[in-house]
What does this fold into?
Amino acid sequence: MKKNKPLWRISVTTSLEAEDAVTEMLGGLLDAAAAGYFNLETGVSMVSVFRDEKPDGRKITAEITAGLKNIAACGLNIGAGKIEIDKVKREDWAESWKRHFHPLEIGKTLLVKPSWSKKRPLKNQAVVILDPGLSFGTGQHPTTSFCLNELVRGRKVGTPQSFLDIGTGSGILAIAAAKLGYQPVHAFDFDPESVRVARDNAKKNRVDTKLKLTRGDITKLPLKPARQYDLVCANLISNLLIAEKHRIVNRLKAGGTLVLAGILAVEFHEVERAFASLKLKLVAKSVENEWCSGAFCFI
It folds into this structure.
């Protein structure tokens, strides 16, 4: 990839109320990670996706417009809903992340930070170095931060514990798990680009030999797995979680914890009911904006 080659930014101006919903919609349409930023002075949020190749402006504008209408139909205020497609210098894009991406601490146990941050870890605090990229997941989203908190909360130092990450994205959860001492650590994602990025991030954090990252489709996995895990994280849309509940739960050990994230709050009850039918009870829950995440254990 040429350093001087410009990037294409597809962005939507929206409200803080709809920022997460627009982020999910835009990322899904463009099959890439989207990020939103809220301007305290103007009260406006901008959600953007960066691409190497020039998009089909007319087609993507029509698709985004339809997506915004669906979000508004759910009762969310989408704000201006202005769609922009423009070229951005790669250097400007890189520098913009340094203004927006800050270190994230999960108690005194885990620190997630970009490579340019000078923040020093506390004594015995595990450190994950993660720089945002064209495909990323940095822990800033509430669903990811909930999963990180559960990784830390569930870790029993000195006790062997295994971890499975379904829909790994940037690999942040798998990398954090390896740093915290989970073993073995397995992770997969349907998107081959996410797998490539996750492997690169694992190498940068020097844990590539401590975890296994593969491309996989949850809908194609065998119902009876060869291995079960102490902790399973599935950061997927609610429809997929419900449809594949048997494949997900069958990978959880008796006495283990299942973390489900990436769920719209209005859909969480339906997800909870689906997993309750498999003898799982909700033991922890977090709601932030319109997103909801939960941790489950066997009854």
